[in-house]
Amino acid sequence: MFMSDEPKIVLSFLTKDESQIQLARDYWTGCDDGHGWKWAETVQSIAERYGMQKHYVASTVREIARAHDPDIRCSDCSAPREIESRAAIRPGFGEYVCRDCNAAKVQSKNQELLEQQMRLAENQGAVVAEVSSRVHLIEYTSIEYFDAVVLYAIMLASDEACEKGAFDDAYRLHLCPGENLTRELLNRLFSKNILQFSPDTPPAAIVLNEDERWRYKPYEVRWRISPDAGGATFPQIFAEIGNLIDLRSEHPSYEQCVADLWWSVGFNDALNFLNQEIATYRISDYRKGPKTDEALRYALERFSIPQVRRQIRSVVKNAAELSVSRDFNRRHALNTIPGNLISYVDRALSEHWTVHPVFSDWQNDEPVLTTVLFDRVLGSGLTGFRSTNGAMLGSPALQI
Ligand SMILES: [Zn+2]
């Protein structure tokens, strides 16, 4: 056993082989000479004497003997501090916890986390079970016109929704131009009990707040369409709401609903298109504010949705060019977007510019709600999409 002044090194041997014990002693011999710790011999010199490679010395020694500093104890089990190699001769800061106690702590922390997760999943599952067990019967022949259009679009987009009255992965429906509107519409139908949670909704779709309230992630919920009060099957419901939509101007809320739908789709489309165009130029630090909203509204009031796309494309391109020019800083360039969009709209009108619409494949790439609005609700199809502006339809009653 070898002891030095500061810190103490106490060796306990794991072998009886004297020559090995000597190797461990040689390795661990050193002292503090008042100017710091000094080892009696370099590892290089020990390695040469014992005919081994230098980088094996520390690990070989550790198989022969464990080195401890009895003056420093584990705060949990009081075991003396193990010095694993020469590099660890000085203790670290803070209280010492030995390797075993550390491992035990990590394990109990993991266990605690696991239990926490299980409790969370249980509580989330309880919300799903409670909400999905509520029974709502809907008279589909008399639902609001707006809701009929949205539900019809969902059923058109998803065979499963139309045939079995259930659907998940709402993101893939490509219902609206952007995710925000899809989320809002799902919320709307849920709040009216037209959509419900399916019992097999994954618990992770529920977010529990600390005050025992909860919210849900519309894209993760497995949705089911509420059954019909009159016992109609889902394909029959699909036909019924189709008939309701075909009433068009005979329906009392048709005109307001058309304005609401067009503005919802148009505003969502313009905003989504603006974000896409900005992303193309990798100018990601654009912050959309009230001025952007106002500029998009201004443009949509006067031009059709695909024409507004063209105008947005042009002003974003302009801003991107400005942002790389010498005299303009980036943020300033981005700030020109709303103002320039309004100026573009004014000049296009006063100078009678032809604004060529930008659109995707009507059947396959435009959002389902957009095509349902023009093909079924308005009956004007792609031609209507290219030419209808906000002023032609009146103001929306919905908050858009
Ligand atoms: Zn310990």
How would you portray this structure in words?
Helix content is 52%, strand content 9%. It is mainly alpha-helical. A three-stranded antiparallel β-sheet has the order 1-4-5. A three-stranded antiparallel β-sheet has the order 6-10-7. The chain has a two-stranded antiparallel ribbon with strand order 2-3. The chain is elongated. Mean pLDDT is 92; it is low at 1-5. Residues 74, 76-77, 79, 98, 100-101 line the site of zinc ion.
Summarize the structure.
The termini are far apart.
Low-confidence stretches: 1-5
Record the strand order, biggest sheet: 1-4-5
Separation, N- and C-terminal Cα atoms: 82 Å
Q: How is the main sheet built?
A: 3 strands, antiparallel
**Broad shape:** elongated
What's the helix-strand series? Answer: EHEEHHEEHHHEHEEEEHHHHHHHH
| Distinct compounds present | zinc ion
Write the layout of secondary structure elements.
Layout: E1 10-13, H1 18-28, E2 30-32, E3 37-39, H2 43-50, H3 57-64, E4 65-73, E5 80-83, H4 99-133, H5 145-157, H6 159-164, E6 166-167, H7 179-191, E7 195-197, E8 206-208, E9 214-216, E10 223-225, H8 234-246, H9 254-280, H10 290-302, H11 305-324, H12 330-350, H13 368-378, H14 381-387, H15 390-393
Antiparallel strand pairs: 1-4, 2-3, 4-5, 6-10, 7-10, 8-9
Bound molecules: zinc ion.
